[in-house]
Amino acid sequence: MIEMQEVYKKYPNGVSAINGIDVRIEQGEFVYVVGPSGAGKSTFIKMMYREEVPTTGNILVNGVNLAKLKLKKVPIYRRNLGVVFQDFKLLPKLTVYENVAFALEVIEAQPKFIKKRVMEVLDLVGLKHKARMLPTELSGGEQQRVSIARSIVNSPKVVIADEPTGNLDPDTSWEIMNIFEEINNRGTTIVMATHNKEIVNTIQHRVIAIEGGKIVRDESKGEYGYEN
């Protein structure tokens, strides 16, 4: 599903963010990516959705080698991938329904299918009743639910989540995690970068710890392992 082979990433300013990572994530896994600030987690995550490109090495996601993927083909690749950000990245002038539907409209799905599928995922995240509201009319937790709905509306095999609970209060964070659990239980692979020690230690999954751009720990049922 996801494989990194001898991956290095050095930025133009000389900073080496990733220093020889080899890792394989199987279909259906739920993986936390943890580590101290500046460890290379963000670069690790961004390379999976082709925001960053490795300096050397190969990254294969859904059979696509991102190290060799031409820029013009990146949007097509991302259609089969779900990405959830800390700051939601919703389109402010579109309703909840329109934000989620947009992901299907760009791939020219049939209107009848779009309506059915959008309402399905809004129901899954508990926001079917707020379909016609704007993002500014929602709480932070509700906006993140819309972001999750948008990320899964095209039924991706993989969802990449970069600090998805970072801007949320503890109660809302647990609600969001319950949604991710449900998505994972339906067979979707989830890779989540997080600083939330309590969540990692309570809802246990595989933990990949990165320090100095290297994987220093990879445990099937791991704990956070750092002081916040």
UniProtKB/TrEMBL annotation:
Q: Which residues cross the membrane?
A: none
The entry's localization annotation reads:
Cell membrane
Sorted alphabetically, the keyword list is:
ATP-binding, Cell cycle, Cell division, Cell membrane, Membrane, Nucleotide-binding, Transport
Keyword flag Transit peptide: no
Molecular function as annotated in GO: ATP binding; ATP hydrolysis activity; transmembrane transporter activity
> What GO terms fall under cellular component here?
plasma membrane
Which Pfam families has this protein been placed in? ABC_tran (PF00005)
Q: Which residues form the ABC transporter domain?
A: 2-228
Report the membrane topology from the UniProt record.
Answer: Peripheral membrane protein
Entry keyword annotation includes Cell cycle = yes
Q: Which Gene Ontology BP annotations are present?
A: cell division
PROSITE patterns tied to this protein: ABC_TRANSPORTER_1 (PS00211), ABC_TRANSPORTER_2 (PS50893)
Q: What NCBIfam families does the record point to? A: FtsE
Q: Which PANTHER family match?
A: CELL DIVISION ATP-BINDING PROTEIN FTSE (PTHR24220:SF470), IMPORT ATP-BINDING PROTEIN (PTHR24220)
- Report the protein's function: Part of the ABC transporter FtsEX involved in cellular division.
Q: Which family does it belong to?
A: Belongs to the ABC transporter superfamily.
Query: Subunit notes for this chain?
Result: Homodimer. Forms a membrane-associated complex with FtsX.
According to UniProt, the name of this protein is Cell division ATP-binding protein FtsE
| Taxonomic source organism | Neobacillus massiliamazoniensis
Provide the gene name from the record: ftsE
